[in-house]
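Protocol step 4 of 5: obtain the predicted structure for the target chain.
Materials: sequence only (see below). No template structures provided, no constraints applied. The aim of this step is simply to have a reference model before the mutagenesis design in step 5. Sequence pasted as it appears in the construct record:
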Amino acid sequence: MRVVGGSSSHRLAFAVARELGVPVTPVSFEKIQGGFPDGERYVRLTDDVRDRRVVLLQSTHPDGMVVELLILQDALREGGAREVITFVPYFAYGRQDRVFEPGEALSARALARAVSAGSDRVLTLGLHNRETLKHFTCPVEDVSGMPAIARHFQGRVDVVVAPDDGAVRHAEEVASALGVPWDFLEKTRLDALTVKLTPKSLPVAGKRVGLVDEVISTGGTIAAAVKELRAQGAASVIAACLHGLFAGSALEKLQACDEVACADTLEGPMTKFSVAPEIAAALRRL
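Step 4 output (structure tokens):
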């Protein structure tokens, strides 16, 4: 087995390879003569993959990483790879998983089909809605990254809370791994940027709270949750997610947290723990 990392998952690819004890196939992303002047992506494998089983790691954010993933798949096929396993740590467009208004695209389906075309098998991690798996046209599996959050919380939280009912399964999984109680806040979204939380009688007074979700985008939901938890007497609040997008002023909104942490599915300043062990374990099972 060989591991290939795209631009969006370069460090994670090396971490996964170390976990598996396999080599990383280097990729050149620029032509010697200066690359394409119009900004188009370029990839070139700099090691032999013929007859190899290859794991391609690439998150599909931002948009250019989708194109890069597709041409990396093509380079692997052109290089004679025996099997291409595409692992997408963060599957962008997964939140557009149904048609909300007439004329919209079902973006999750479109991307699932595109990623499937160059893959013998696809794995995702922390997919927004597992119903999206039915849109892939090759064998597919979604891997949980919540054990990584549990490791980050170990010994630091007394209760795990989901900011809304959509994250309940995540809070339950993390709390179960830690052996602590869990609960959730009821959320009503007023508009794209504003949410209202209905107060609940959570046992958080004087407690260290771990707030869990699969993705933090604008930070509005988490910020509102922190405000409510503080009002109910929480001693501290750590917010953790798998996929840290932190769009716009998200980090400014989250200053009320004692800590904000995300996994290395998207590499950034808030990346504080790795999902490499979860990815490696999933690949060993294949």
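Step 4 remarks: Residues 206 and 235 are 5 Å apart (CA to CA). The chain has a mean pLDDT of 93.
Proceed to step 5.
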